Structures are given as C-alpha cells and as structure tokens.
Amino acid sequence: MELFFQVTVFILGACIISFLKVIAQDYPNINYTRRSRCDYCHRILQWYEIIPIIGYLIVHGKCSSCKNQIDFFNPLQEFSGGIFLLLTVHFGTLNYLPLFLMLIILGFSDAFYGYIYPIFYLLALPTVIWHFSIIHFLTAIIIYLALLLLNNHALIGLGDIEVLALLALIFDLSNVLKITILACLLCIIQFLFNKKRSYRFVPYLTISTGIIYLIFIIKI
Description:
By secondary structure, the chain is mostly helical. It has helices spanning 2-26, 54-58, 73-91, 97-113, 125-130, 134-150, 158-168, 173-193, 202-217.
C-alpha cells in the first residue's frame, strides 16, 4: 500500500508539471479543446504519447511520424516534478505547494516568452498567509524598494524583483539570500555552456527555491 501511494504521488507530480507547462505556454489564450501536437510535423499525438515520462519512453524519444527527436527536457521536467512532490509529501508540508505551483508557471512562462503574468502571483496567496509575519513583510518591502533603486540599468526585470520580494514574504532573509546566490550560480554554470549576454532569471529562481527548500527547510 505504501509503494502504491508513493507511485501515485510521483505520477501526480509529473502530471502537475505537464499541466502547468501547458497553462504557461497557452495563457492567456487557453483553448480547453486544444490537442497536443508534435512540435515539428504538428501531428496530433496519440493518448499514450502524452502520458508523462512513459509516453517519451514508448516512442523512444522520437516522433513516431516525422522521427524528429523530442526534447529530453520534457520527461526530465516531469520526472523532477514527480520526485519533488514525493519528497515534499514524505518529508515536508503541503502548505508550500501553492508557492511552487506559482513558481513553476512563472518559470515556464519566462522561459517561453521572456515575461510573466502577475495574475499568477495569486496562486501563492495561501502560502503567504500561512507564513505571514511582520518581519517577512518588512523584509519584502525593503528588498523590493532596494532592488528597484539599484536597478538603474535594467540588469534584472521587474518580474524578477517582484518574485524575489514575494519569496521574502514566505522565507526568512537567509534562505532568500541562499536562493538568490544559487540562482546566480546556475546562471554562471549555464553561461559556461551557452555564452548568452542575458538570461531569463525566474526559471533559475524556481529551480533554486526548490533546491533550497529541500535541503535547508525540510532537510531531506
């Protein structure tokens, strides 16, 4: 029974990632009747091809029609979502889940289009209320105003500043600093492989928040 529960939680986590990715990709023009298609030949995918992780394995990582390689990051993201939810349920608490739902959508949206929709900040509201304190509130205001004043040359986007301030409403300052430093390190690592002049920062904040949460907050 325990194994069945763990497998169910893992599958749920993988499905959540897949679903939130579609929301981020389609918003605000969400079509509830849209069918998943191949990115290359635009063939409508069969039901078994859209099963998280398993669908990728069934077709051996290639479109069964045009034979183009499917992006390996798709099943990797779904696998990460399954593992993350499994660890959260086993070691942590679900009151942080609304925050991560928001971060995942914002991370995908920023990665796809380079901007985020503030309406999704509302998803984190239950987590903000649960962890609200005057110290967190004052810290968030200071971080927001300080980054706005320091950001004369638009080194980071307004959305990045808002997400950092929102994180400060939930986590203490030491964890916010850890998240920020780790996100910067991930950018540097990415730069070593792909020397772009600028990076969309919210995906790195999302990943680093998940890592810091697992290591320092629920202490797996």
